[in-house]
Amino acid sequence: MDQRKESRFDLEFQVRVWGVDRMSQPFAELVRAGNVSNSGAVLLGLRAKIRPGALLDVQHGSQRAQFRIIWVAPGEAGIRALSFEPCIWGVAMPKRSEMVGAG
């Protein structure tokens, strides 16, 4: 059973990400964000070598927020928005408690 606090949606967006890689070198890339929730996503097509715990800036359209890297796999990374950051995906996503049959 899924224990996540927020529902995930099978949406995909192109986003710009930038930060500092494992070698302390700045980078910027265009990647895809998928499996999104109000506060997180999975980055797909990532080439930079990053590490969990580091911060990334993510921009979708004109919206921008800072995220923490939660996990890393080849070409992918799970990210979570910092607690004070808004949802930048531009779609209204219900909280799990607002969904029918959630619980």
Describe this protein with a few key phrases.
50% strand; 6 strands; single chain; Thrombin, subunit H; disordered C terminus; six-stranded antiparallel beta barrel; 103 residues; mainly beta
Molecular structure report:
By secondary structure, this protein is mainly beta. The chain has a single domain (9-91), classed as Beta Barrel (Thrombin, subunit H). It contains no helices and six strands. The radius of gyration is 14 Å and the shape is globular.
Would you kindly provide a brief summary of this structure?
Helices cover 0% and strands 50% of the residues. The chain has 103 residues and is mainly beta.
- CATH C-level class is Mainly Beta
Domain unit count: 1
Low-pLDDT runs of 5+ residues are 96-103
**Percentage beta strand:** over 45%
Distance between the termini: 11 Å
Number of DSSP helical runs = 0
Helix percent reads under 10%
Order of helices and strands: EEEEEE
Secondary structure layout:
Elements: E1 9-20, E2 26-36, E3 40-44, E4 55-60, E5 63-73, E6 76-81
Antiparallel strand pairs: 1-2, 1-4, 2-3, 3-6, 4-5, 5-6
